[in-house]
Amino acid sequence: MFDTKSKLMVAAIGAAFALPMVAQAQTNVTVYGRLYPSINNLSLSGASGVGSTSTLSTGSSAPNLSVTSMESPNSRLGFRGTEDLGDGLSAIFQLEIGFSSNTGALSTANTPFSRDTFVGLSSKTFGTIRLGNMDTVYKSLGDQMPFLGITSGNFMSTSSILSKSTFTTDSASSFHLRRQNSVYYTSPTVAGFTGLFDWSPNGTAGDAKQGVISTGVKYENGPIYAALAYERHTDLFGGSNGMLANGGADTALSNITASSTNGMHSTDQAFRGTFQYSFPDNWKAEADIANLRFSETGQTATGKFNTYSHNTWSIGVEKDIGAVSLVGSYGRETSGTCTLTGGVACSTNGLQAQMLNLGVGYSFSKRTELFAVYSKFLTGQSAYAENVYSTGGKVSAGQDSNIVAVGILHTF
Q: Residue 58 — φ and ψ, nearest 5°?
């Protein structure tokens, strides 16, 4: 008998072989993919120990460590296609599988097609609407300069600085995610401007108020790319869930119990601006700046989490010299401010962080590249280094990380 994992693998493989036959009835079907395994050396040091200075992250003791591993985060296999329906209208679809090429394991708890997967309609006059599982508008509009093409789900992604809080590594506080049950609209482009909107309601009965709304506008004209984006999470409790995930004394601040949220409500918001310019002689630069806000209301008990807000920014440059690409990025996030219910004092000391990435790539062709990268994440004594994947995100408050990696990228 097959177990559940085996059945899912068979279904995914069967779909991969079946789609080329289906392609005969389509106007256009493309099979594509990306593989980028790397050998990484990670070192962690400087854990703050119990009693760090931030109210939201109490810290824990952990030894320094060094480990070498192989990773291939977010390697993917995808299928996309279109059908001409006439009068300028097309049907579109995409199915995308995420997996680790070094282990063969599917991403997202062995779920096939866990990456951007959708079906929709596209019109030059009315725009495009898609339904499925997709990156939010906020995620897709910002951070437009991939680090050697390998930043998706990787340790050098500046989303770790730009789009998350530092008092936890829990994903509930992230604004850089893909959302299920999404309705995504993209307007026609007019004079270089394109509007985007997506809505992801919660699909669980009894939790109808939960959901995510993300919207923005981008401008593209020659060497210029500029975008403004906004995202709002309703009743996802990025603050309280983050403190529960920490597992320290700060869990007492959480508004979430084992069985309910006690009539609580949360509104978490992010605002971001992005500007990129492509200069002559094959180099470009980008700047991102964002503000993240977490708010929870309705709690009558004193000393519970109420609000947290902080600012983030990053800059990046890329230069191509023949077959060689040189890249670098730097980002910072402030410690921010916080409040607790009942006027209880709340400290964010030590929640600041900064991140430096340097890399070089050598392209044998448009599809194949060797790369070497270095990433350093420096944290305050209360902050978590969220770019660490080699330890499954199990880092302690105050630990700094250094990662050196070499690998190969191939796209098809």
A: -80, -10
